[in-house]
Amino acid sequence: MAILGKIQRSSGVAIIVVGLALFAFLIMGLLKNSSSLFRPARDYVGKVNGVKIPTKEFQEYRANLQKRYGANYSGSLTMRQAWDYFVNKELLQDEFKKTGVIVSDDRVFDVLKNDPNIRRMFTTPQGVFDENQLIDYLEKINDSKNINPRDYQAWQQFVKGIKENEGRKIFTYLVRGALNPTVKEGEWAYRKETDKVSFDFVTVPYSQIPDSVVQVTEDDIKNYVAAHPDKYKVKESRDLLFVKFENKPSKSDYATVRAKIQSLIEDKVVFNEKTNKNDTVPGFRHTTDADAFVKKYSDNYRPVRWFTADELPKDIADTLKKLHKGDVFGPYLRKDKFFVYKIVDRKDNVPATADASHILISYKGTGIPGVTRSEDEARKLADSLLNVIKRNPSKFADLVKKYTDDKASVAQGGAYKDFSFGKMVEPFSEFVFTHKKGDIGIAKTRFGYHIIRVDKLSKEKTSLFKLAELSKNVEPSEATTDSIYAQVAVFTQQAIKDGDLNKTAKAKGKSVMPIKKVYRYEANLPGLGDQPELVRWLYNKKTKVGDVRRFETKDGYVVVQYTGRTPEGPMPVSEASVLVKPILLKQKKFAYIKDKLKGHSLEEIAKNSKGQKGHVEDVTLDAPMIPGMGKEPVVVAVAFVTPIGKISDPIRGEYGAFVVSPTKITPAPKLDSYYPYVAQLQRKESNNVLNRILTALKDKAKIKDNRPALGY
Q1: 3-state DSSP call for residue 214?
Q2: 589 vs 103, which has greater pLDDT?
Q3: pLDDT given at position 171
Q4: 428 and 441 belong to one structural domain
Q5: Which among 193, 199, 56 is positioned nearest to 617, based on CA atoms?
Q6: Is the pLDDT of residue 2 over 80?
Q7: Are residues 278 and 211 in the same domain?
Q8: I need a labelling partner for 495 at 20 to 30 A (CA). Which of 467, 532, 603, 669 fits?
Q9: Are residues 437 and 376 in the same domain?
Q10: Is 284 within a domain?
Q11: Of 133, 150, 178, which residue constitutes the final position of a domain?
């Protein structure tokens, strides 16, 4: 499809027999049914408020995601994205029904006819969008249900996608429309930003009170977490230790590849069975076609080309610069590859930059849009134009306008300025940098024939090197991989016997790495990459804490020990302590300090508490900063409501315990209209509204995840 590449008491025994038979019938039915009492249902991956997410649809959607992103994209990510899509879809469909959101066929048609890509497909010969063409096409698609069901189903899916997307838009607009801040709220936003207060204060920093003075117990932390369940809750997770074994080449592998590439440098004498004579086969040093040689023998073919001095491989540039034409350097090892380089040619004292103008005469097959001439026609035209220019050089600019197929350079008269050798395609550059200023000639590139005029050559000189690169990859041999596998197998068995990966690794001189909080369906593990099989093993009901298993990775093996499990629910005390203890320390230190913050004046309070006096000028609730102490919103809020000259009760701030005494309150001047602030609040409330709605809906929804039962 073009658009989408739609049942008597007379015999009690008889009743019992029949009853047992019916019971047996039911049991057999259940045993045969995939959603029986004894096996988990496999026809759905989950339920959202009782609505099933079909396994087939889920798998198809996930497969399409994987196809879109490519084989290298993490499978665990497509799993999560597919799950989120279906959960969100069901949550929103329920809300659409409640709110009466309906996407009509007319709206779908409006979306289609306003899509720029679709408009381009249905145009008149004059390039004007023709709505009737689109209508005719849609009628044909709808009539093709029995003739071409595949295209029809694809069309139905496309329409379904439009309706889902438009439904989200309508629902979002409805919610946004309900988010209408009042004028009073706008005024409050203005006052928060503009009302100012100045005040004197005394503070006793929490850091001034040693932690040993107060005591935070495990029960304190546990009680605090229990009082804030939404803030301190965790998802189920697993912990593990792992040891990596990389499939790396051995010393013998390096020596073998080095000898192999070394043997390609010099000529070889080979017996020719056809002539019954010895033939000399040129090696890399003496070959007359370096590019063909490299293409035949190199593991990583790179065409022979010219390099400027700055483009040479950085690690050996100084060495290559000293070589002469025909010289060979190597074998040289770089990142598990051996290289041999040959200076096929070199040019010294070449201009560093140049200006040149050209007329491109392209031909069919070069990729230039709209060109239909043959290569022979292009060559003849180029030759003809060259003769015209040689007779009358002043016609160059006019011929550029009339003939060039390089439309990007027409406005500049075909000119390109201040380019170095490597910035243009090689035949073009080679012509320019090997000729003199004013020279005119033809060079053929993959774009066609170029009539080139050399306009300027810089006085600054450089050297050019025509470099051939021969390379061989160093990879672990079969003997090496067998040896590594045997080593891993022995290590794994010993670790299972020891029951302690740390102990086994220490004895074998291997490093152990931990991974904390491995979540279900989040298989991209630090240091290991995407490991869905490993994560499935961790979450398998048969896997117990302490179990050890070997897994294959893309670059070798990893031996893993399952070390712990954190169940879903309140955060464990050991984990919550880092977050909660500082809060409780502040609370207890404040309780310790506040009785000392007493006196008839700030001076007396400072003396009694050994606190610090200070003053803050013109702060707002929007920016409640106390210099050197950071944000103190509660302290500033208390300053606004405390009468001028009065001393507040002790305040539990972020930096320490405070008392404040306001010296000046400057109310903001009244405005004729607070609508700019109302609009600002509305924009703020509207931001990311759909995601906020979905988060709230998920918190309230009954979501059953059946993926573990399906082996995901």
Answers
A1: coil
A2: 589
A3: 84
A4: yes
A5: 199
A6: no
A7: no
A8: 532
A9: yes
A10: yes
A11: 178
- Tokens 């592998």 correspond to 253
C-alpha–C-alpha distance, residues 361 and 378, integer Å: 6
Q: What is the pLDDT of residue 140?
A: 83
Strands (DSSP E) found in 255-404: 268-272, 277-281, 305-308, 328-333, 337-351, 354-361
Q: What is the distance between the alpha carbons of residues 237 and 684, in angstroms, rounded to a whole number?
A: 35
C-alpha distance from residue 237 to each of 464, 515, 535, 571 (Å): 59, 11, 10, 12
| Residues 341 and 386 both lie in one domain | no
CA distances to 78, 509, 520, 699 from 233, rounded to whole Å, are 26, 39, 16, 13
Q: Is the dihedral of CA 503, 504, 505, 507 positive or negative?
A: positive
How far is the C-alpha of 419 from the C-alpha of 458, rounded, in Å?
A: 10
Please report which confidence band the pLDDT of residue 312 belongs to, taking 50, 70 and 90 as the band edges.
very high
Q: Is the peptide bond before 669 cis (omega within 30 degrees of 0)?
A: no
Q: What is the pLDDT of residue 30?
A: 38
Least confident of 3-12, 42-51, 542-551: 3-12
The one-letter amino acid at 491: F
First to last CA, the chain: 34
Same domain, 326 and 418: no
Q: What does the CA dihedral 566, 568, 573, 576 come to, rounded to 10 degrees?
A: 110
CATH number at residue 394: 3.10.50.40
Do 556 and 614 sit in the same domain of this protein? no
Answer yes or no: do 201 and 265 share one domain.
Answer: no
Which comes out higher in pLDDT, residue 643 or 63?
Answer: 643
Query: What pTM, to 2 d.p., does this model score?
Result: 0.65
Separation CA 611–CA 657 (nearest Å): 9
Which of 310, 314, 526, 503 is CA-nearest to residue 423? 310
Q: What is the pLDDT of residues 256-306, one digit of tens each?
A: 999 999 999 999 988 888 888 888 889 999 999 999 999 999 999 999 988
Residue 333 lies in a domain: yes
SS (H, E, C) 672-691: CCCHHHHHHHHHHHHCCHHH
Please give the Cα distance from 606 to 203 (Å, whole number).
8
pLDDT at 23: 37
Strands 651-652 and 656-666: antiparallel
Alpha-carbon Rg for the chain in angstroms: 39
Q: Please check whether residue 446 lies inside any domain of the structure.
A: yes
Domain count of the fold of the chain: 6
For 177, half-sphere exposure in the C-beta direction (CA atoms, 13 angstrom radius) is 6
Distance CA 356, CA 362 (A): 18
Choose the final residue of a domain: 148, 178, 208.
178
The predicted structure's pLDDT at residue 40: 52
598 phi and psi angles, rounded to 5 deg: -130, 150
Distance CA 518, CA 534 (A): 10
* DSSP-assigned letter for residue 592: H
Domain-located, residue 399: yes
Helix H or strand E segment including 626: strand 625-626
Q: Could you give the count of Cα atoms lying within 13 Å of 480 in the half-sphere of its Cβ?
A: 16
Could you tell me if 658 and 615 are in contact, meaning their C-beta atoms sit under 8 angstroms apart? Answer: no
The encoded tokens of residue 689 equal 């509204």
* CATH classification of the domain holding 276: 3.10.50
Residues 387 and 432 in one domain: yes
Phi-psi region of 330 (alpha: psi -120 to 50; beta: other; left: phi over 0): left
Range of the domain at 13: 8-39
For residue 89 the two structure tokens come to 């879809």
The candidate with the shortest Cα–Cα distance to 165, out of 96, 219, 220, is 96
For residues 530-543, average pLDDT: 92
Among 44-48, 422-426, 663-667, the range scoring the smallest mean pLDDT is: 422-426
d(CA 189, CA 192): 5
